[in-house]
Structure formats: C-alpha cells, structure tokens
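Usage

Read records sequentially. Each one opens with the input sequence:
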Amino acid sequence: MHAYQTNWRGFALALSLCLASQVQAQDKVEWKITTYVPPTHGFVVDVLEPWAKELEKRTGGKLTARVFAGNSPFGKTENQADQVKQGVTDVGWGLNGIPRGRMPRASIMELPFVAPSADIASRTLWSMAPGLLADDFKGFKLLALHCHNPGLFHTRDKKIDKLEDVKGLRMRAPNPPTQELLTFLGATPVGMPPGLVYENLEKGVIDGAVFPWDAIKGFRLEGMLKHHYDARVYTACFHLVMNETKYNALPAEFKKAVDETTGNVMVNRFGEWWNRWDQAGLDAAKARGNSIISVSNEQREKWRVQLKPVIDKELSDIEKAGVPNARAIYDEMLKTVARLAK
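and closes with the structure output:
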C-alpha cells in the first residue's frame, strides 16, 4: 500500500509539472509582424524591431514578435491587411492605396497638396480615424496611421525642369490619386510595388518613379534614378493593423503593452522618423552627383489651381465607389491640417 501511494504521488507530481509546463508554454506567444519594405528600411530598423523588443520587455518575455520584411513569403505589398484579417499574421504594415479602393476614406489624404509634411498628415489621419475614417478599418484593431513627406518625381534619363516634362514618361505610381495626377499630365502611370522598381528601370519597362526621398536609399535606387524633381505634390499613407478578434482575446497585460506603445505614442514620432529616412535618400543622391531641381512654394500654389480637376475627379470617383461624404472628409482633412500647421 505504501509503495502504491508513493508511486501515485510520483505520478501526480509528474502530471502537475507537465500541466504547469503546458500552461507556461501557452502563456508565451510569438507574433508575426509583417511589412513589404526591405529588412534594412527605416520602418523595420527604427519602428517595428524596437517595438517588438518593447512588447517583449513590457510583458516579461511572454509576448515575443518576429518581423517579416519584404523579402519574406509575407512581404507582398497588397497582402499586408488581408493576411492580418485572415489570421495568417498578427500585425501588418501596408499602403492604404494598394490595392485600389481598400481604404478609400483614408486615401483622400493622398490627393495633391492636402498636407505639407509627414508629421501633419499622420496626426491628421490619426485624429480622424475614430470618426469619418472608421469604416475603412472594420475588423481591425488600428494601431497607427501615418504618411510620408510629400514626394518627388525621379527619372532615369530625362531631366524634368517643369511639371509638364513628365508627359510621355512611364512612371511608377504608388496610389490612385498619383496615377490620376500623372494621367492628367500626359504621363503613363504604372502601378508597381516599390521593390520591383529597380528591376523594371533596369529593363526599361518604366522611365522613372514617384517616391519620397527615403525610397532612393531604401530600395538602392540612387544609381539608377539620376534626376530628381522636388515637386512635393502628393503623399502616400500607411496603416499598422492587428486582427480585432485576436486583439480582443489578448490577456489584459498584452493589451496594455500594445495600447501604451502604439496610437499617439507612435504616430507622433513619424514626422521625425520620415525626416531622418528622407535625409538618407537625399544624401545618397547627392553623393552620386545626381541632378536635383527645387521648386518654389509660389510655383506649388499655381499647381494647386492647375491640378484642381484631378482632385475633383478623384473625389467624384470615390463618391461613385460608395463613399458619399468624400468631399466632407476632404474638407475636414484640410481644416485639420490648417489647425495643426499653426
């Protein structure tokens, strides 16, 4: 009897240790955080990887995260939000305007001359997210919204001295508003993930690309794109999203770690980050001796009038696609930008 009791106690102890081990293992979670940019891009190095480490620190190692960049199977530009919604990945960073029509309300920020900087554009989008933009993000826990600094026209062979010089060129465009702008100017817009630009320039498929400065360094384009026209006509905007159901099922300490490191805390730093990333691209172009054409603010004000038909057409298209208050959203963006710019 004594031997039986001893054996039973040994079994019970082993079972309890096994169960405790399983519970402990279940308490540890590893997230997949994905993006389409290269692993050397500032968004990976300065934002996603430090954020993953901070989550791990705040949860005592219970929540770890692995960042998958554009060179991974999860790196397709158009798949970032879909992967999150389908539960394939946990968090995704992607472009609002790719594919076309996915986030039509937030994409209004990408129209010409809406915002003068990454900082103001990002804070404007984030302030409007719970209200006029909310329908774009159903099913997601929205962690951040942001935009890059107004972008440029970069070309391989033809030097651009005025906006009309893009006529006849095949230009990579990041979003529908920029495609409309290029069409209006007589260029041929080519929708293309940024990671494919180098190859298509090399093959002669495109003549140039519409990018902010950061992409020149980020995608190793300083030797391929030799002429830079600092138009600063447009911006492109981005989302950082999590599956809403997954977020709601998180333990309280995980939610707290996420909430305290995203939202305003993250959005308010994008101006600083983009300025740094853009400077690296500009420095790379200067180091190669590339031509850089500046544009005065007076000239941009003239373009604002000239490009009004592009804005009107894009707003009409968005209305026809099911956003009847597109113009109200546009007007609110302009008001918020003006307030934040003071």
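Summary fields computed downstream for this record:
- DSSP finds 14 helices and eleven strands in the chain.
- The CA atoms of residues 144 and 263 lie 5 Å apart.
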